[in-house]
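User: What would this chain look like folded?
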Amino acid sequence: MELKNKAGLTEKEFLAAYDPGDYKRPSVTTDILLLGMNEDYSSLKVLLIKRGDHPFMGCWALPGGFIEENETAYMAACRELREETGLSGIYLDQIYTFTKPGRDPRTWVMSIAYLALVQTLSEVKGDDDASDADWFDLRVSDDSIEISNEKKDVRIVYSLEKEEFVNGVIRYENFIPTLVSDEKLAFDHVEILIEAIKKLREHIYYSNQAFCLVEDTFTLPELQRVYEAVLGKPLYKKSFRDMISDKVVETGKEKTSRFKGGRRSTEYKFKY
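Assistant: Here's the prediction, encoded as structure tokens.
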């Protein structure tokens, strides 16, 4: 026996009569914060694209775009990365869904944001609706975010102020950005960056994400620099090695650490 609702309709009859136009529907995009490490593992790099069309034409932004009808958000993120930067086959992790009213001046748009990590920086070029693309130095502290590219003479700076929020019985801190430079990131992409860095910092202690930011083989000083760049603070050598001891295995070789003054040390790889 088929179930009927209060109007006496079966599910088939209900769906046949349903008008999706009864409710306004948002457009949905995906945006990707793509991170790597610089040459000597001393700081993070972020990939930005330069917008080639309105809105925010000429502003630097995270790669991304609208999700198509036959795609999941993950599929769209992979496609947009490939179309706008030429990158594929890299680590992707969903961060958060951004729904603030007015976040996009075109219409009602929600964004499902992803964090992407790469082991090495590959050359990128703007494509599709991006007029340019490049890697930028990224430094995040408790006080500020600085995004810069000396070659392109770009420096984007936000000051950060901590605010406490209450969710039920839980209190937590968030960072509120204020632009202090002439140039800015498009849309609410600085908020996506903040949420992604917060999540990465929280997870890196117990996850294996750090190994997506280092080459297949590495020295422990190199790996420690990756953790320190993400966390924004130095780590004690012994505590760090205790933390990662069950995640790495020796290769039987030696390797010179990539940073200045780096010595030859035991070479390691991630223990799958």
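The first strand starts at residue 27 and ends at 37. If you want, I can go into more detail on any region.
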